Amino acid sequence: MADTRPLPTALMMPGNVRAGQVISLVEIAGSIGGKVDVPKLADELGADIAVLLPILDTAEMLGLVRTEKGDVLLTDLGLKFQKTTRNKVRMLRDRVATIEPFRTALDLASRKKTVTAQEIADSLAEIGLKWHYKPDLNEALVRTLLIHWAIYADLLGYDGKSGEFRKAQSKP
Amino acid sequence: MLSQPHPSSGTTVVTVDRVSLDYHKEREPLPVLVDVSLSAKKDELVAVTGPSGCGKSTLLRIIAGLVRPSSGKVMVLDTEVTGPRADVSMVFQNFVLLPWRTALENVLFGLSSRNEFTEEQKIEKAKAALDVAGLSGFEDVYPGELSGGMKQRVGVARALATEPRVMLLDEPFSSLDDLTAERLRKETYTLLINPQSPVQSVILVSHNVEEIIELADRVVVLSGRPAHVVGEVDVTMPRPRNKKSEEFFHWVDKVYTLLS
């Protein structure tokens, strides 16, 4: 049967951005203060602009920064994030949960108790969301994203022995 | 000759006293380190730097008790180092994690010879060390599934789990990308040197002079073949140290002058 669902407008987490990079970006933008232009930010971070841009996109997706005509500004959430000293990504828990592949992973983990990266990647591919055109690399990228972000954000737990994700038993 | 006492001197935790090391090439002695002396006091981070291949890491292995010096001795607090010991831990450049063991099992490996603890206590300590290193929730993840920064956090957790008094860092940030290294550098310093930490002194080997000036209370510069101490610099710049400041460049320049 043909899939009649509308094309996705989902937010997709870039496959190559790590939480630590976003933390560095917010800390440096915050320490400069006010509006920072993108080339200056790249220079301060010691990162190539090609490396910086996906990090910047991610920070914006997470609501930590706003970009205005080539300038970067911290949002209120970004300022709070900058000042937090521990478990920064935990602060972004609700935000991360709205972004793919985490949204689908959480949905599957609530229904099935445990779920593999393969099942999550397949489910996302069905609605046209892929991080790589090769299925095996796509699955690897989805797993890496889930491990890096969803565990830090305390959304999912992961057992490397079985390769299964489950909903995190949220800590206070 | 022992190094001069640091202005903020407290108890001396590590003393390297006229240590020399010879390798043997076709029965001929090949001196690698000659008469190296240095000391690290309580709450001090001492950096050892020098050109590539000069013997910095070898010196660290001598302090760890992994290599026996040809002459001279290393003391940790009141006792001489004669082999690996429980109160001295090391973090390696290439993480050296067992890929077939999870993060928790890798940290437990560091505790495997500590028979004074029960298995439950070891697991508790390993989990606490992972938490301190910022890896709570990653206990059952394999090293191959972790990023470079996270792998090194496991390395730090493994070294911390034994609650060492001396922490030896062998180029711990040089396999990481700049952004990750920058963050981990700051975190590691506050993690190791604070009143709650069991660690009393840290000895860091690095060839990255900016990294050294960011972190060290004192820098010991090795040079020459065989390597010997060519100078020491007390970095009295207050923390946090702004890497873009003129004062920072002044200290970097001081170390470079000794190196060149």
Keyphrases for this structure?
heterodimer, A: 172 residues, alpha+beta, Arc Repressor Mutant, subunit A, 2 domains, 3-stranded antiparallel β-sheet, 8 helices, 6 strands, globular, B: 260 residues, alpha/beta, Rossmann fold, 4-stranded antiparallel β-sheet, 31% helix, disordered N terminus
What does this structure look like?
- Chain A has two domains: 67 residues, Orthogonal Bundle (Arc Repressor Mutant, subunit A), CATH 1.10.10; 75 residues.
- Helices cover 49% and strands 12% of the residues of chain A.
- Chain A is globular and about 45 Å long.
- The N terminus of chain B is likely disordered.
- At the A-B interface, helix 1, helix 8 and strand 5 of A face helix 5 of B.
Write the layout of secondary structure elements.
The complex is a heterodimer of chains A (172) and B (260).
Chain A: H1 19-32, E1 36-37, H2 38-45, H3 49-61, E2 65-68, E3 71-74, H4 76-83, H5 93-96, H6 102-112, E4 114-116, H7 117-126, H8 135-150, E5 156-159, E6 164-167
Antiparallel strand pairs in A: 1-3, 2-3, 4-6, 5-6
Helix pairs in contact in A: 1-3, 1-4, 7-8
Chain B: E1 12-25, E2 28-41, E3 44-49, H1 56-64, E4 71-76, E5 79-80, E6 88-91, H2 103-110, H3 119-132, H4 148-161, E7 166-170, H5 178-192, E8 201-205, H6 209-215, E9 218-223, E10 228-234, H7 246-259
Parallel strand pairs in B: 3-8, 3-9, 6-7, 7-8
Antiparallel strand pairs in B: 1-2, 1-4, 4-5, 9-10
**Structural shape of chain A:** globular
The most extensive contact between chains is:
A-B, 23 and 16 residues
Structural class of chain B: alpha/beta
Unreliable parts of chain B: 1-8
Following the backbone from N to C, one meets helices and strands of chain B in this order, namely EEEHEEEHHHEHEHEEH
Computed CA radius of gyration of chain A, to the nearest angstrom: 17 Å
Oligomer category: heterodimer
User: What is the third-level CATH name, the topology of the domain at 1-87 and 200-260 in chain B?
Assistant: Rossmann fold
Largest sheet of chain B: 6 strands, mixed
